[in-house]
Sequence to fold (241 residues):
Amino acid sequence: MPENVLRLSHLSKRFKGVKAVENLTLEVQVGECFGFLGPNGAGKTTTISMILGLLRPTGGRVEVFGRPVTPEDTTPLREVGALVGAPGFYPYLSGRANLRLLARLYPTVNEARIAAVLGQVGLEAAADRKAKTYSTGMKQRLGLAAALLHRPRLLILDEPTSGLDPVGMAEMRTLLRELTADGVTVFLSSHLLHEVEQVCDRVAVLHRGQLLAQGPVANLLHGHQDLEAFFMAAIAAPSQQ
Ligand SMILES: Nc1ncnc2c1ncn2[C@@H]1O[C@H](COP(=O)(O)OP(=O)(O)OP(=O)(O)O)[C@@H](O)[C@H]1O
Ligand SMILES: [Mg+2]
Fold:
């Protein structure tokens, strides 16, 4: 039976009358790339913040590797790497020095591992430049390197390709495929349906906090030209009721 890496059960979040996430239930299995889709304001970042114990759910629960995550107990997140929003770094330190600082948190991360992740994200050439001289895409790459540093078994990425050029996006696709081939599970939110279609096994579509559809990409594509056509049809449906 496939191992359940992430389980959201009836997860809800309200902000003063705004139902940001409503009764969301989904499961992500080991080694898959799961795409979390939805238009602006759908509730993707709110959901990811609850998974990471950064926001307290109004209702429901989050389980990672079969253990509950709450803002008070984030122990199951030790094997999770995450990239949410613009990553923050010490601007006057190099990319490599920033990773060295982070590495102090993890006894198993040595200089060779730092060099390896810098290579994985394509930052070798810029590794010894100050982070403040990095472009948006380079900062995003360094954020990804930081998320990968401790060899997480689950990687949670909120819009990871924002700021990346087409080459960077293609590299990200390759990297995600390599990681899943190594058994890492990826939970990825994105607006870039074409990207998601190429790398994800299953997707869920969230709209106004509600789960509209989920399933294997191949099944959802049935009867639709591509994931974008499916997505447009899915989010148009409720407003016609
Ligand atoms: N701290 C907050 N206080 C009040 N409302 C919030 C807060 N954070 C999010 N919201 C609201 O919750 C809803 C979901 O927002 P969220 O950021 O989760 O959407 P998203 O799917 O990540 O959108 P995007 O694609 O634009 O990143 C929106 O209506 C947003 O205005
Ligand atoms: Mg968001």
Remarks:
- The mean pLDDT is 91.
- The beta strands are 4-15, 18-29, 33-37, 59-64, 67-68, 80-84, 154-158, 185-190, 202-207, 210-216.
